[in-house]
Amino acid sequence: MKHSIASRLALGFLVLLVLFALAVGVLFTALLSSHTLRAKKEEMSAQAAAIAASLAAPSTEQNADTTPRGRGAGRGQGSPGGPWGGGTGATLRLLDAVTAGNAWVVDENLQLITGGQGQRTYQYTDLPPAAEQLVKEAFEGKEAFSEGFSDLLQTPTLTLARPLYAGEQVTGALLLHAPVAGLRNASTQGLLLLLYAMGAALVLSLLLGALLARWMVRPLSSMRDTALQLAGGDYAARTGILRADEIGQLAASMDILGQRLQEAKERDTQLEQMRRDFVANISHELRTPVTVIRGSLEALHDGVVKAPRQVAEYHGQMLLEIQGLERLVNDLLDLSRLQSADFQMEMEELNLCEVISDAVRSARQLALKKGVEIITDLDCGLLRCRGDYSRLRQMLLIVLQNAVKFSPANGQVGIRLKEGSLQVYDQGPGIQPDDLPHIFDRFYKARTQQNQEGSGLGLAIAGQIARRHGIALSAGNQPGGGACFTFRLP
Questions:
Q1: How many whole angstroms separate alpha carbon 176 and alpha carbon 51?
Q2: Contact 375/413 with Cβ under 8 angstroms?
Q3: Which of 17, 88, 213, 386 has the smallest number of Cβ neighbours within 10 A?
Q4: How far apart are CA 32 and CA 187, in angstroms?
Q5: d(C-alpha 6, C-alpha 211), whole Å
Q6: Residue 356 has pLDDT above 80, yes or no
Q7: The 3-state secondary structure of the chain, one letter per residue
Q8: What average pLDDT score do residues 361-366 get?
Q9: d(Cα 14, Cα 10) in Å, to the nearest integer?
Q10: Cα separation of 18 and 20, whole Å?
Q11: What is the pLDDT of residues 366-413, one digit of tens each?
């Protein structure tokens, strides 16, 4: 089962799910980190705004003489003086105590007004390179963030720089520090939760994928078994799959194939039986005349018959038998040609009424011997159709001769054409119900005294000619007695 479709489908599902989980994990981590950092920045911004409002200093014009100037003055820890003296200095000391030194106030010369009192004291030289650019942006009236103080504070830190105003003039910069280790821990925990959830979902999806793959492969296994049965000659095998998808369509096509193969097998069986019946029938038809001819020749050859009159009778009997054999051979050839798909008839435009009249004239020669009258009833003198004149005449003549043969002496045979339907009827005994289904079969002859002569191929030939012309030929009995053959013209 290493290379089975189910294994490949399950493996494909697993690979797709892993790739999907990786993509979701990366996207989730990026979005979570971005959202957490953005939320933290918003929180720090609001906190810095509150602190800046509490540190509002008096106008610099009133205290200009006390403001430190130059980078050489007071590079270390500053003391609340100048604009940050008095009450503001007390506020700075309180702020430094409340924020545990995480809120610094620096002037434009990077002098720390407050920054870590009670904690570690930082000097100008301790400040990172990013401090000057951050303070510069604050004195330009901008709010900026930086992570450059992480090494100085010995922990991952996010620093916000916000300008402090005295009136409309920036008098200092507020540096608010916030550790981000907790943010990263939160992101890591969120990622772990996501990984746990994706792992559980992956296991569940793999189980569902395996079930889905098995559900998809099961009908394929059934179709494989059916195909093997069909290959083994069991054409009755069916998949039994009823689905509306492509697999169901394939199964339906295989069932149709099995049905066609079964029908073909049945036809082959019928053809084989017909072949056997044909050989048996032709053997039976040939046995009698051959036996008669052989017996007559042996009698003449051995001198058993010597009287001229008897010799003439034997010659006449052999001639009749040979003529019968000739008719049988001709009928077999005609039937064989008509049943061949390659046999082409000489189709042409003709008047069917002329064909009927020609066949009736020929049949009257046989009818005169029995005193049978043939009457015609044609509702028109012109009926155009396309067909082979000689074959249509042969078809009608076979049926007329058959009607004359079964008609009593001095009886009547009628032929009637009305509304595109041609009927030939007689006043004979009719057709027995058991004989009706086989009336057009080869070598089939009703066991009656009138039907002792003939090969049993005439009506089969007539049926083949009718079929080749698209004519529906059927046989039945009239209500008042006698047989009736009906030709329904196309």
A1: 9
A2: yes
A3: 386
A4: 6
A5: 9
A6: yes
A7: CCCCHHHHHHHHHHHHHHHHHHHHHHHHHHHHHHHHHHHHHHHHHHHHHHHHHHCCCCCCCCCHHHCCCCCCCCCCCCCCCHHHCHHHHHHHHHHHHHCCCCEEEECCCCCEEECCCCCCCCCHHHCCHHHHHHHHHHHCCCCEEECCCHHHHCCCEEEEEEEEEECCEEEEEEEEEEECHHHHHHHHHHHHHHHHHHHHHHHHHHHHHHHHHHHHHHHHHHHHHHHHHHHCCCCCCCCCCCCCCHHHHHHHHHHHHHHHHHHHHHHHHHHHHHHHHHHHHHHHHHHHHHHHHHHHHHHHHCCCCCCHHHHHHHHHHHHHHHHHHHHHHHHHHHHHHHHCCCCCCCCEEEEHHHHHHHHHHHHHHHHHHHCCEEEEEECCCCCEEEECHHHHHHHHHHHHHHHHHHCCCCCEEEEEEECCEEEEEECCCCCCCCCHHHCCCCCCCCCCHHHCCCCCCHHHHHHHHHHHCCCEEEEEECCCCCEEEEEECC
A8: 86
A9: 6
A10: 5
A11: 888 889 999 998 877 788 889 999 889 989 998 998 899 888 888 899
Residues 59, 212: Cα–Cα separation, whole Å: 77
Fold type of domain 348-488: Heat Shock Protein 90 (3.30.565)
> Check: CATH 2.60.40.10 for 257-339?
no
φ and ψ at residue 376, rounded to 5 degrees: -120, 145
Q: How far apart are CA 119 and CA 328, in angstroms?
A: 132
Structure tokens at 236: 């009755």
How many other CB atoms are there within 10 angstroms of residue 235's CB atom?
18
At 257, list the tokens: 């194939």
- Give the Cα separation of 215 and 210 in Å (integer): 8
1.10.10.10, 3.30.450.20, 3.30.70.20, 3.30.565.10: which CATH number matches 5-60+77-184? 3.30.450.20
Domain ranges for the chain: 5-60+77-184, 257-339, 348-488
Contacts of 178 (CB under 8 A, 6+ apart): 40, 44, 102, 157, 158, 159, 160
- Asked whether 288 and 455 are in contact (CB, 8 A), the reply is no
Which residues neighbour 465 within 8 Å (Cβ) at sequence distance 6 or greater? 338, 391, 392, 394, 395
Q: What is the pLDDT of residue 487?
A: 93
User: What is the spatial distance between Cα 155 and Cα 162, in angstroms, rounded to a whole number?
Assistant: 21
Q: How confident is the model at residue 127 (pLDDT cuts 50, 70, 90)?
A: confident
CA-to-CA distance for 179 and 158, rounded, in angstroms?
A: 6
Amino acid sitting at position 44: M
Q: Name the residue with tokens 């650019």.
A: 133
Residue 6: partners with Cβ closer than 8 Å, 6 or more residues away = 210, 213, 214, 216, 217
Backbone angles phi and psi of 100, in degrees to 5: 55, 40
**261-264-270 Cα angle (round to 5):** 145
Tracing tokens 């019928």 back to the chain, one arrives at 270
Could you identify the residue written with the tokens 């100037």? 69
Tokens of 55: 């540190």
